[in-house]
Amino acid sequence: MADFNLMTSLHIPGKTRIVQLVMDGLGGLPRELDGKTELEAAPTPNLDALAARSQLGLAVPVRPGITPGSGPAHLALFGYDPLTYDIGRGVLEALGIGFDLQPEDLAARGNFCTVDEQGLITDRRAGRIPTEVNQKLVALLREIRLPSVQTFVETVKEYRFVLVLRPTAGQTLQANIYDTDPQQLGVPPLPARAADEASAPTAALLNEWLTAARDLLKAHPPANSLNLRGIARDPGLPRFTTVYGLKAAAIATYPMYRGVARLVGMEVLPVAGETVEDQVETLRAHWDEYDYFFFHVKKTDSAGEDGDFEQKAAVIAHVDQVVVPAILALNPDVLIVTGDHSTPSLLRSHSWHPVPTLLWSRYCLPDGIAEFGERACSRGSLGLFPASDELPLAMGHALRLTKYGA
Amino acid sequence: MADFNLMTSLHIPGKTRIVQLVMDGLGGLPRELDGKTELEAAPTPNLDALAARSQLGLAVPVRPGITPGSGPAHLALFGYDPLTYDIGRGVLEALGIGFDLQPEDLAARGNFCTVDEQGLITDRRAGRIPTEVNQKLVALLREIRLPSVQTFVETVKEYRFVLVLRPTAGQTLQANIYDTDPQQLGVPPLPARAADEASAPTAALLNEWLTAARDLLKAHPPANSLNLRGIARDPGLPRFTTVYGLKAAAIATYPMYRGVARLVGMEVLPVAGETVEDQVETLRAHWDEYDYFFFHVKKTDSAGEDGDFEQKAAVIAHVDQVVVPAILALNPDVLIVTGDHSTPSLLRSHSWHPVPTLLWSRYCLPDGIAEFGERACSRGSLGLFPASDELPLAMGHALRLTKYGA
After folding, report:
1. Quick one: closest CA in B to A93, which residue?
2. Hey, how many other C-beta atoms are within 10 angstroms of the C-beta on B273?
3. Could you tell me how many CB contacts below 8 A there are between chain A and chain B?
4. Minimal-distance CA residue of chain A relative to B392
5. Angle of helix B131-141 versus helix B200-217 axis, rounded to 10
6. CB distance A65–B381 less than 8 Å?
7. ipTM of the modeled complex
8. What is the 3-state secondary structure (H, E, C) of A35-91?
9. Looking at beta carbons, which residues of chain A come within 8 Å of B382?
């Protein structure tokens, strides 16, 4: 909170523009062939040229050794210490699909799953049913009524949905409730169990819904049961306008990231399609309307999770070719290129490795390292730094902070 | 504590093995001859080859500019912030000789000293009497009885012993009591003085013992008096199994280090002799039984304290030749090579300089610096980092931590 006090008390108006280009899961590990990482192997002439005029460093998303989920990793990029601020998965998912979550709502991520005749889980993702099947099942689940609360069930995609309970006036729902997903096969889905006494009535409501829902689904294999995870309420995070005095916009295509952005008070801009070209169009169209843009590229992470080194390098090369020149052509005042965490193809998952990061502004002191890569960044003047320092640094470079003290 | 919450809540089981090889007082300063430090001057082909495949950095044991004692320096290596966790010297010494210290016990380190006819100290270490003499004197001191508490007197070595007071049921001893050693010559040994009111009864008990002990010793020059230091109780540190979920073993020959290890819940393994070869034998014999090994080399520090540059470099070279290949042959998953603090021969004492550190795992991103030395480490990607980050980093690299948040 100390840093937020600084930001909140020092920010000043201005006409400068900040872009934070986030390639999800950017950091990687070397392949055997030539000892290069995905980022080092990708042809990135534009990023390399920009690096020569920039400061480089390695960003630590949470703490050394800690592998972050997407929520905490993005909070850090936005300057929120992820150990101080916590968002439940249910809330992220609800916001990510554009659900108009109210402060008093309780949200859970739902997963359809498959159980056998004994009621034991055989597939935690119900064979990854198509989204169209999901939509039909969600229509069934919407028929379930609970006493005293409104329920909303919304498709996310494939086997995933969102359940929202909205209390009636004066009533409070408590979200300290364990996941019902036992996270293993061969055991039954669990009931909702309250982790404290105050959450017991809400857990009872959820169990009433779960019983009805699991009963309804019996006739619909492979999605013949379900689980709830990440049961949570809006954590009420400080807003970007308050913290930084920035009018902020998010350009992201994937629900989760649109959700986090909305939670910190960004406006989530419409994107015409799923490609980075579509995202660039959105950026151009709204350039004059905002002080700050969060530009999120998802496919670097997806390729890393698939263990596809070549594909991850190709996505990076494409961003270098298409996105970087387009941003530079708009003449931003500050450009940060980074990732939310590392997703090495070698590990096929998020990892704890710090994230290559580049900061350019006309007031940066260039390191003179004409390469954007993990090892290049480890020699940069930003050093090994907390990812939550990126926004304060950007604020300084955008001349958006006044002097601290006389 | 936040970090321990992270470790405690994220650790997961696994079959991976971590080795932390600690050369005590590893860091040094350049000699005039060629401007090389002890570590830089020592021939270390195995460490240099390992460095080329590793990440390097400089570990700060406590805070910049602060010279640590052995206790705090080791707590930091084990991930315990030494400003949060404090162990009294008396407790370390008692545990170090294998004394079965109980949580309610009060322990003090004792030093025999020499006083002249006026009772003024002429030698704070009693001419470093042989351990055999110490044992005879300790037998005398054991005859002293105190009301209501049990007393234990144990030889450590040379002029050093341990005094333990064990309270009777329901009684509590308070350890906020100053050292009786005035730390200078030409003045008398001091009585025990309580630093707070609650400790006054315990100080009175200690003074009763001190009076009897000093009286008994009058006839035994050069050890004709004594002092008590580091009066303390077991601080009840969180245990390695709780914090990291690691079954941990210590391979150390010197009492102090065995003591700290025991205090954080490590099992202290028997070593057949005093050499690093003996320690390697212990490591081999117990390799399958533990998740983590603390391997402590004492003689680097002893040589530094003696101001013997050549000897310190020779100890490092010997570790490189004998210990490093032996550890690598066991195929660990994570190997950290570090020191607890610096002990430059130039200073003949512990110092505040950050400690050269190497981290290897198959998931590390090698810096490509084929040398293990202070200057090489200052260019490494671990940067200048708190020594207490080593264990969390090792946990990440050992795949022993699950993701933080969704």
Report:
1. B406
2. 11
3. 89
4. A65
5. 120
6. no
7. 0.87
8. CCCHHHHCCCHHHHHHHHCCEEEEEECCCCCCCECHHHHHHHHCCCCCCCCCCCHHH
9. 384
CB contact under 8 A, A68 and B363: no
Asked if the Cβ–Cβ distance from A65 to B383 is below 8 Å, we say no
Beta B383-386 vs A149-157: how paired, if at all? unpaired
- Quick check: helix, strand or coil at residue A19? strand
Query: What token pair was written down for B353?
Result: 């300089």
- Residues of chain A in contact with residue B12, where contact means CB-CB under 8 angstroms, are none
Is there a contact between B381 and A58 if contact means CB atoms under 8 Å apart?
yes
What pTM was estimated for this model as a whole? 0.89
Closest residue in B to A90 (Cα–Cα)? B406
Put simply, the answer to whether A375 touches B367 (Cβ < 8 Å) is: yes
Encoded tokens for B98: 């294998």
One pLDDT digit (tens) per residue for chain A, 406 residues: 446 889 999 999 999 999 999 999 999 999 999 999 999 999 999 999 999 999 999 999 999 999 999 999 999 999 999 999 989 889 988 987 878 888 899 999 999 999 999 999 999 999 999 999 999 999 999 999 998 899 999 999 899 999 999 999 889 999 999 999 998 999 999 999 999 999 999 999 999 999 999 999 999 999 999 999 999 999 989 999 999 999 999 999 988 898 899 899 999 999 999 999 999 999 999 999 999 999 999 999 999 999 999 999 999 999 999 999 999 999 999 999 999 999 999 999 999 999 999 999 999 999 999 999 999 999 999 999 999 999 999 999 999 999 999 8
| Residue in B385, B394, B406 closest to A92 by CB | B406
